[in-house]
Amino acid sequence: MYPMEDCIKDAISLGIEEICFTDHVDYGIKDDWDDLRNNKATKKYFNVDYDKYFSDLETLREKYKNQITIKNGLEFGIQKYNIEKYNKLFKKYPLDFIILSVHQIDDKEFWNHSYQDGKIEKEYYEDYFNEIYYLVQNYSNYCVLGHLDMMKRYDEKDGYNPFVENKEIITKILKRVIADGKGIELNTSSIKYKLDDLMPSRDILKLYLELGGEVLTIGSDSHCKRDLKNSHIEELKQELRDIGFTKFCTFEKMKPTFHEL
Hints:
This is Histidinol-phosphatase. The chain is α/β, with parallel strands linked by helices. Helices cover 39% and strands 19% of the residues. Helix 5 runs parallel beside helix 7 (167-179).
């Protein structure tokens, strides 16, 4: 657990000028705190307590307004069947930034391999990218796609190349993202997880740039002080420059602001 105020203090001490919290919302595998309060909870885990979360953010924003900019964000772990729940949540709270991610399919999570069990890499990668493609066609209240190709955190690494084997649908995903004025996230945790490539991969980043993609954020995926301190953001900014990017984005009220890399 990493209390928000501790994170803010740590960010200030590290010279960070702006921070956006993106706590997870994963309907299907988690209940809301209102479900617990109304004795309707059926899950073991819960989404962020929205009212408290946004109230605390407003208090902290005022307290540290002369030291750091603090933005309101959430990470939506959407599945095909529960899109409307996220539309309702989006309309209820003031948000600067939303990451659209896929963390599970059919309520089966990737991190514990419950979705991958019994499938070969070809099957679960195709399922993963097809799920994302469906979502970008049917859900629009987001800013960037989070850690596209994050399935590689959990794959068997037996020589299967997810970019080469799924380039057609990845291209469709990126074209739709660009057409809708959305973006993608470079997630720096690829270093923490000791992956052999960036996340998304250099190939995906190059393809996004070639297709005309401009909206790009850099997310530290920080869950503790160590993550924040060792976020490798400057290192990965250079990776982006090497690929050909010249700008990255932050968001306010769901609109991108471009900054020089």
